Amino acid sequence: MKFYELSPEKRRDQLVQEGWLTTQDAALLAGTHSLPEVTGARLIENAIGEFPLPLGVARNLLVNGQLHQVPIADEEPSVIAAASNGARLATANGGVRTHVAAHRVVAEVVLTNLTDLVQARQTILAHQTDIQKVIAVAHPSMIQRGGGLDQLTVESLGAQFLKIRLTLDPQQAMGANYANTV
């Protein structure tokens, strides 16, 4: 019998047998637990109730060489069937390969009313190591996590403006506060 032809209970049982769910997970999914209002009000702002959706699973999607069962909460017919079919086609053709690009943030400082752009640029670049040290002292925890200044560039903007562009590695942080305080 195909997975989609099974009852929800039998689907949970099969996922337990395959090792995708624990018996506790299956019991939780089978239960009729409703979120208490007080819990909902603590989780989000302006809570006015719940909006339950059926929870299904798109089966056997190969991602980076590892097979996944993808949970999907949805009220539309055929969405999970289409996702499962897409997973089947992708898996049959080697699966999905992912790559995460390095996360960087940029801080820019524009200097105005400069009379000698060439000299100002040379001075900034000559003190790049000093600038990196100041950033490291201001944000030691970022440096400890492996982040910091990746790149410093200086660009002329018109006749009297110079832009200093600092490319920063915020590690796991979003980086906005880091960029703003550098």
UniProtKB/TrEMBL annotation:
Keyword ATP-binding carried by entry: no
Gene Ontology biological process terms, A to Z: coenzyme A metabolic process
Domain of life of the organism encoding this protein: Bacteria
A Pfam family of this chain: HMG-CoA_red
Swiss-Prot/TrEMBL keywords: Oxidoreductase
MF terms in GO: hydroxymethylglutaryl-CoA reductase (NADPH) activity
Family label: Belongs to the HMG-CoA reductase family.
Protein's name in the database: Hydroxymethylglutaryl-CoA reductase
